[in-house]
Design a protein that fits this description.
globular; 316 residues; Rossmann fold; alpha/beta
């Protein structure tokens, strides 16, 4: 299968590209810029452009069998600051993508949604895919809206969408600018000798899993003929305070912790029921949390070393 990965040079997208290639698929990437942490891959066709550029998008869509849509211009913790841009860039942008797909006769799309935000404050934990979508922040509202439009395009325009609702993936190549991912952010601050900042009392619980496990599910799901929504996560919850304890053990580091006021956007507890993915795709997480955490720490240390001290496995 020939797959276009929109956002394929980002954190999750780059791992999906790796898995697609490993499964023998042909890959085209559409993104705004090259990968940050490694050189272009020889077997990948790269198209660079803005998600809002219709002509560039149509050109990238032509001749592929399926689209994997990973691109997002916002993050859960920041989307509320400018909901208008969140809607314009991500919701309207995705509708424009669907219309462009329709124009070239393309119907198969995988969308990576947010299992941590679309359900809102859950009625039951672990959360099944049948749980109502009741997001409480702009990020989740836009993700849920995209899911509804995908269903509309399935019913009225013959599209074949499949949705992966990812919990909290972490691992190598995650941006560590301090705004994306609790684990990446904490590890980066430790490397920089900075205190770790925690919103609230540290008892917020999330479902964390290694990004290559997410990528494997996306490839299995997106290249199948199945439709609908699938949760992706470990199925186990860890509080932020428990994450801190695991980081101390993995890094053998001392660091200061600063507790800050809690945020209204944070759901108190979110753990996903992933039994449907296991039943339909034979998928479950293969990489344990502690192993993934150590691998991420080692990768970040490799990136932080001067070129004279180390040769990164994936040089920037």
């Amino acid at each position: 299968m020939k797959v276009l990965v929109i956002g394929g040079n980002g954190f999750i997208g780059s791992h999906i590209v790796d898995k697609l290639l490993a499964h023998g698929h042909s890959v085209r990437v559409f993104d705004r810029q090259p990968e940050r942490f490694r050189a272009p891959l020889q077997d990948v066709h790269y198209c660079f452009g803005d998600f809002g550029d219709k002509m560039a998008l149509v050109e990238a869509l032509t001749g592929v069998d399926a689209v994997f849509h990973l691109l997002s211009t916002t993050l859960p913790g920041t989307a509320d600051l400018d909901p208008r841009s969140d809607v314009q860039d991500n919701l309207i942008g995705t509708i424009n993508l669907l219309e462009a797909m329709r124009g070239v006769g393309l119907r198969r799309i995988l969308f990576v949604s947010s299992g941590g935000t679309v359900y809102g404050i859950p009625e039951t934990v672990p959360i099944p895919e049948t749980h109502p979508l009741r997001p409480i922040g702009s990020y989740g509202i836009v993700k849920a809206s995209i899911e509804h439009y995908l269903e509309m395009y399935r019913r009225t325009r013959g599209f074949s969408p499949i949705i992966v609702r990812a919990s909290n993936p972490f691992g190598p190549r995650q941006a560590h600018s301090g705004v994306q991912g609790v684990i990446s952010t904490f590890l980066r601050r430790i490397l920089a000798g900075e205190p770790i900042e925690i919103w609230g009392d540290g008892n917020v619980v999330r479902d964390y899993f290694e990004v290559s496990d997410l990528a494997e599910l996306c490839v299995r799901a997106g290249t199948s003929s199945r439709e609908g929504a699938y949760n992706a996560g470990s199925g186990y919850g860890l509080s932020v305070n428990e994450i801190i304890g695991a980081i101390r053990a993995a890094t053998d580091s001392r660091f200061e912790i600063v507790y800050k006021p809690g945020r209204l956007v944070d759901v108190p507890r979110s753990v996903l029921d992933c039994s449907r993915a296991k039943s339909d795709f034979g998928w479950e997480c293969k990489i344990g949390f502690d192993v993934g955490l150590r691998d991420t720490w080692n990768w970040l240390n490799t990136q932080a070393r001067p070129a004279s001290d180390a040769t990164p496995a994936n040089p920037p």
